[in-house]
What does this fold into?
Amino acid sequence: MTTDSHLILDLDGTIADDRRRLPLIDHSSLDPWRAYHEDCANDPVINRGLFQGFPGKLLIFTSRPRYVWDATVAWLECNRIPAAEMWMRENDCRMSSPDLKAYMWYQCREKLGIDERHVEMAFDDRLDVIRMWRYMGIAATHITCPGGGGSYDERVSH
It folds into this structure.
């Protein structure tokens, strides 16, 4: 690992413990995830060992919508998570998480001039996203919430 290395981190369920927010998802609403996302500022940090002491740069790829940008930046700062870059979902975007994060990756590559050789690992709680990272040639590890929270696939029923 070098200072030119990068880690790709998801937030919710990967380094932010979102379990207390899951009941806020209301599939009967026109915007089922709004309350869940708007309450993101008080999540405890989990899995800090994934990135603490990493000498390179942390890249955040999250499916959170941009309307919680300020709350997310404040959460990162408050918890001393030194994200070099962050990509978020546009407010009106309805892409699946794997498609969204693949699109974010292409933006990241162009902006930073990096490719998969510069990424040590990607971490996410969604198996479909992990499969996408691996398809892109990036080593990826599936993360589950501590305390029996399970992965996204186990925690959120649609």
User: Anything to note?
Assistant: The first helix runs from residue 34 to 38. The chain has five helices and five strands.
